[in-house]
Each structure stands twice: as C-alpha cells, then as structure tokens.
Amino acid sequence: MNDRISAQRAADSLEKPVSEAANLAHKLGLDPYRVNYWIVDYDEMNELIAYDGFQTRYPHWRWGMKYDRQQKQNQFLGGKAFEIVNNDDPSHAFLQESNSLADQKAVITHVEAHADFFAHNQWFGLFTGGGTPDAAAMLARHADAIAAFMRDPDIEREAVESWIDTIQCLETNIDRHRAFESASAEDAPRIEDDDIADRLDELDLGADVVSEVFDDDWLEAQREDEPSGAIPPEPEPDLLAFLFRHGMAYDEEREKAVEMEEWQRTVLELLRREAYYFAAQRMTKVMNEGWAAYWESMMMGEETFAGTDEFLSYADHQARVLASPGLNPYKLGKELWEYIENSVNRREVCERLLRVEGITWRNFHDVVDFETVAAALAPDPVIDRIAGDGLAAFDPDDPRVDGEVLAAAENGEIDVDRYPWKLLTYEGMAERHYSLAKPQNSGFLQRTSREELERISRYLFDDSRYGTVDEALADVEYAAGWDRLFEIRESHNDVTFLDEFLSQEFVDDNDYFTYEYTQATGDYRATSTDYEDVKKKLLLQFTNFGKPTITVQDGNYNNRNELLLAHHYNGVMLDVEQARQTLERVFDLWGRPVNLKTIVKELDDHDLEVAKRREREPDPDERGKLIRYDGESFTVEDLPWSEVEGIAATDVDYDTKPDEWLA
Fold first, then answer.
1. Coiled-coil region(s) at which residues (predicted)?
2. What is the CA radius of gyration of the chain?
3. Are residue 52 and residue 153 in the same domain, yes or no?
4. I want to staple 109 with a disulfide (CB 3.0 to 4.6 A). Which of 2, 296, 607, 618 is the partner?
C-alpha cells in the first residue's frame, strides 16, 4: 500500500512537467508520439532494462542474466538508470521513483525527443511499413505463444529454450535495409522443366491432348524463363528467413536432419520478427541518442526547464551521461548534430555576405568584421529576455510571436516568467536559440575556409545583391539549421549519418583520433587524426550493427545439400573461435554440414621477427579460407583467390596504420 501511495505522489508531482515538456517540444518543432509515463521502483526499472524496455517478454533465462548484470552494474560500478523508453505509439517511458526532480525532468525532455525520432525516422517506419507501431502488444503475443509451447506436455521446455538460444545467436543476420516480410510469404518456387515433364507423364495424356493444351511456344517460354535452379539465386543477407524456408532441425538421437516441428518454425519466425523490430534502434543509436541529448540540453539548460534550484543537479546528470567512457553515442551524436546545425547556419550567413557589394570569397576574411556580424546575428532582445512586465513590447502580428498566447498572458492566464517560450512560435524559438550567436560557437563563422567560400560562391544562383552587411544579415533564415536537422533525422541511419557529415573540421574540433594494435611492439598506439581514417573506424562499429556481414551463397553446395555462407571481408578478420561457435548454431537450423568462406590475414614468422627488430609493421598476406562443420568436427582448407575475390571489398580497409609503419 505504501509503495502505491509513494508512486502516486511521484506521479502527481510529475504531471505538470510532463505536460509542459510536451508543449515545449512542439514549440521547438518536434512532433513526437504521445508518451505514457510510468513510475517504477528500482527493481522494476532493472527488470524493464532486462526486457529491452517492455513489461512482457517470452520466458527465457537471458532476461534473468541481463537483470542480474544490471543490478551488479548499479551496485558495484555506480551506474544509475535514468530512463528507458520504447518505440511504440503511444511510446511508453519509465521513470525511476527514487530519482530527483531534476533527473526526472531531464528524462522527460530526453524521452520527448526520442519519441519524435521514433515517429519520423524512416528506418523505424520500415518495420511497420509506415503504419502505427504496436510493439508492446506484438511482444506480448509472442510471449504467450512461446509460453504455451513450454507448457505443452508434448514439448520439452529445455528444447524450446535451446532452440531460442540458437536463434538468438543469429538474430543480427537479417536484411536490415528491407521492410519486414514474413518468411512464409515468399513466392513458392517454380516447377523445374523436368518436373513439368514428370507431371505430364503422370497424367498419362496422349500427345494430341498435350499439344492441344500446352502449345510449343508456351513450353519453350517456360524453358527460357526458368532460373538456373540455384538456391538462393542471389546472395541472401536474411539468413533467418532462408533457414525458415529451407532449413531442417538436426536430430541428435537419429543423427540426421529432420523437418522442423511446427513450434520450431513458429518460434524462428517470431524471433526473426523481433529482430527486425529492434534493428532500427541498433541502426540509429548515435543519431537517436545524440538527437535526444541535443534537445534535452536545449530544453533543460537554454530554456531553463530545469529550475534555478535544479540546474546544478541537472548539469551533473548530463555530464555523467556525456562523459561515459568508450565510444559514447550520446556524446558523438550530440556533437555531430551541433556541428551540422552550425555548418548549415554558417553557409546561410556566408551566402548572404557573399552577395554584399565588395565582398568576395577572396577577400572575405579581410573585409568582414566578425564581431559586428556576431552582434547582428544575436537574437532580438525582446525575444531573448522575455518577462511578464515586458509584454507591451510584443507585436501580435510578428511571425515570431504566438498571438493567442500573448493575449492569454496579458490576461494573466500564463506565467510568462516561468514559461517564456510559450510566447514564441517556431520561428521565434529558432532566433532565440540561433547557434552562431552562442558563445561556444563564436569562432565558427570566422573559421570558414577559402575552399568552402569559393564553393559557396560558385553555386550562388540568386543574383540579388545587398548594399550593406546589415541588409544581408537581416535576411538570414534563423531556422535554416533546425530545418536541416529535421530533414536529416527523417532519412539517415548511423552509417549514412557519419559517412556524410563527419568532416576534418569536426574531427579537429572534438579531438577524435584512431589507434591500432602494432605487431612490432605488441601494444596500441595512436595512428591518425585524418577524418577519413576516423570515419573508417566509426563505420566499422556501426555497419551491420558492428557484426560481420554474412550472406547465404548456396543451399546445395557441391550438390550435397550443404550450406555455403560467405563473410564479406572489409579488412577485418573474423574471430575464428566465435565463427566456429556460430556455425554450430547454424548447423542446428540447417541439419546438414555448413561451410563458411572468408579471408584471413597471415603473417610469416620470419617477417614478424624482422618487423620487431626494425620496429616496422609487417604487411600480412590475405588468403581465402573455407571453414566446414559437419556436426562433429571442423575442417579448414585454403581457397584459391578466385573463389573469394567476390567477397573482398576493394575500396574499404579499416586499417589506419601510417604508411611508414608498413615500409
């Protein structure tokens, strides 16, 4: 009873912040799913984290393991669960009851931005086909179905759990770039030519009847259109779908492949569907977390959604999140969103200034007074310092001002001192928070390179000119940066986001670099600050969720019903031990021998010894290998380069060691 009363009090105290955070998000141009907030205690939060943000999942030991890991992380490493939100409509967010009010407000603003990203990013729309997600209900149905199999007296619970273990090891082997389709919805295979002849023979029809019903032209057309019979006809990235359609279960007692039981196929398809649902979150981790951190900072700090007595607590909250060690998606994402906003705004300003009489890309840095420009770009004091006693300065017809709210504020219905942003439209908010007017970005415009200025000038198709700098800056679109951010959040995933927008300027500003393990010295060393090298390393972390890209090549390899998989080599070798363990799992779903071709780097012992003496990195040889598992043992054989050159990337190499290391 006391727990329920405490939770209700916490919920009541957050009702106003939840409502106002949603209002503020819309003022800033966000358009999130409606969010339902739930107050949970410490144990419930750990359980939700273990369940990937949902209250119901299928029964399996993995959830208990994740729960135990989360508890130990909190207990021994000082971790703290601030929030968890799921991609659903409405979204559901869970707030830990013991968090401070400052933490809860930070979570709420963060969640509103997540819900906006869920609602508008096309990679999340792939799963639903553009429809409305109902993930909680879907996962609950899956849980009920799998629980029913476990209760079935004719099915061993251990067999179901073992089957789930096998599928989970392969859950990233889907076609993440395609919309989800049921594996059972594929077109039925066409009948082979000899099958047509066999069927006609079975009908025992006379030649005259055959010629009457099946004319020669039609039969010939079937032969011309008939595929080669290869399964699959093209490399198939969705391994789970292929195994659903063509795989068999290995029966250890009978020591042979048998048809999958109906429950096995059902569980395989249910977990494949869940893998597609969670794929978008894995594909947009940097974008999504950076997006939420960006808008949370805007709302909590710049719009003082955190009260005066809460700000220091909030600052500590965000500092801990952004300072997390390793590859931090919150920090990387937030910095890159801010850089893009600054870059777009800078281009907008440069386009205006380059139309001023007497200013060209050649003399730009000599004739432009950047302090004067900065002062001119600063937001109008009327909208920058809003106060209840200054309402007379606002024009209800000003596009930056919300006329209805102004009237309500004049009638005393709105506390403008506490919620000044209510008085502004999107245009007003964009000017109020214009990035190039912020102190931390004071040198960004002046840093514009001559190359960029020349490029901008080359594409100035508008012939209109300005007589003065002030006239040019008066036409600056304050919302240009935000408008571009909203466009990007709709279409990109982490790989395309980093590939398109990470630049040398960004790398230099934020001190990114690469490092490599050196064979010569046996340690790690910083290797490069070149943005192309940094980009390579980052893309390695996010392409295919950071996992090796595997495709199905042949379902009848060497005409023996063996499965041939291919690792698409990008300069990074497979972990051979993990590859073997994975092949064992694939064998369970194929029922027959499984083969994997890949490329490995091999170092000659003599070359390695020479490299160590000279403190130079050896240059390894790349060789094709075929790993085969027959259910009992592994074999590894060399493949001629001609058989693996099709899986070797010719223009991608994630090794960023300087050339002199390889001399």
1. none
2. 30
3. no
4. 296
209: in domain: no
User: According to the model, what pLDDT value does residue 498 have?
Assistant: 96
Do 370 and 263 share a structural domain? no
Residue written as token pair 């029809």: 205
CA distance 243 to 250: 13
> Is 40 part of a structural domain of the chain?
yes
Can you say whether residue 229 is alpha, beta or left, with left for phi > 0 and alpha for psi between -120 and 50 degrees? left
Model pLDDT, residue 604: 80
pLDDT digits (tens, 9 = 90+) for 337-362: 999 999 999 999 999 999 999 999 99
Which pLDDT score, from 0 to 100, does residue 608 have?
76
Q: Please check whether residue 371 is in contact with residue 399, taking contact to mean a CB–CB distance below 8 angstroms.
A: no
Confidence at residue 223, expressed as pLDDT on a 0 to 100 scale? 43
Q: Which of 536, 543, 545, 518 is nearest to 611 (CA)?
A: 518
Same domain, 25 and 151: no
- Split into its structural domains, the chain has a count of 4
Q: What does the pLDDT read at residue 80?
A: 59
Q: Are 524 and 515 in contact (CB under 8 A)?
A: yes
Could you give phi then psi for residue 399, rounded to 5 degrees?
A: -60, -15
Look-up: residue for tokens 């939420």?
Answer: 292
Residue 245 and residue 143 in one domain: yes
Q: Which tokens hold the place of 342? A: 């600054």
User: Can you give the pLDDT at residue 371?
Assistant: 94
Does residue 194 belong to any structural domain of this protein?
no
- The pair of structure tokens assigned to 643 is 């058989």
Cβ pair 186, 293 in contact under 8 A: no
Question: Can you give the pLDDT at residue 69?
Answer: 80
Q: Are residues 560 and 539 in the same domain?
A: yes
pTM: 0.89
Which regions in the chain score pLDDT beneath 70?
Answer: 1-10, 74-82, 185-229, 462, 650-653, 660-663
148 and 260, same domain (yes or no): yes
Give me the domain span that covers residue 388.
Answer: 329-509
In one letter, which amino acid is 124? F
The last residue of a domain, from among 282, 305, 340: 282
Q: Do β-strands 35-40 and 83-85 pair in parallel, antiparallel, or remain unpaired?
A: unpaired
Q: Say what the pLDDT of residue 652 is.
A: 65
> What is the per-residue burial (b if ≥16 Cβ within 10 Å, else e) of 21-44?
bbebbebbbbebbebebebbeeeb
Tens of pLDDT, residues 81-94: 667 899 999 999 99
What residues contact residue 334 under an 8 Å CB cut-off, 6+ apart? Answer: 289, 290, 293, 294, 297, 322
Nearest partner of 510 among 521, 495, 498, 525, judged by Cα: 498
In a domain, 656, yes or no: yes
Res 213: pLDDT: 46
